[in-house]
Amino acid sequence: MSRLKHIFSRRRSLSIPYALFLALFVVMPLVLIMIYAFQGEDGSFSLSNFERFIEQREAANTFIYSIGIALITTLLCIAIGYPAAYILARKTTSTARVVVMLFILPMWINVLVRTLATVALFDFLRLPLGEGALIFGMVYNFLPFMIYPIYNVLQKMDHSLIEAAEDLGATPRQVFTKVVFPLSMPGVVSGVMMVFMPTISTFAIAELLTMNNIKLFGTTIQENINNGMWHYGAALSFIMLLIIGITQLLSDSKGSSTNDGGVL
Hints:
single chain; mainly alpha; MetI-like fold; 12 helices; disordered C terminus
């Protein structure tokens, strides 16, 4: 008994480096963001940073515009990624793995290199850089994050449910709308989370594909931090954290209701 306790205690000790890493590089930065966000220039507690965000039209408009770009990017990724994942899930395992690997391969390249390649492509085709190029670059960079979660869920789906629906006389359209699509919602929600939030907070893609003519919310945060306005930049980052937390809670409740409610 004492020997087993010794073994388990040793295994628990293996988690100490991970706990230290999380404390130093995850928890501490989040705590610092909260402290700076609710501090004034004199170091006292203040809500002036959030009042400044509400009063400044430029920051608020950039935030709303970023949400719009994120929505368009997410919808395009769903429109392209869901059919691709659905087709891949119906293919043989070996073929699907090869195609999925082709989708994932670009992710092995740094996002800045991929974006610079997109800029070179637009220059080669003599296409102007701007909002269209920005949306194209966003979809190109984040599409694999939409395809893979949906494909993973569809691949693991219990096909006996589809067979049961067909035996009960359901048409192919009814099978998809009543069985396949509801069961694939966890993958869709995961894909939306992995595309929507990074699109709002990114800044490098927007700077390169619009020649810094279009700013997203991430660019605003970066500019304030670089200019030494730590408190205001932390407040903007805290707003992003709130949005991420609320979105995560909504996605969790959506996923649980989908799983609990069945497919019909």
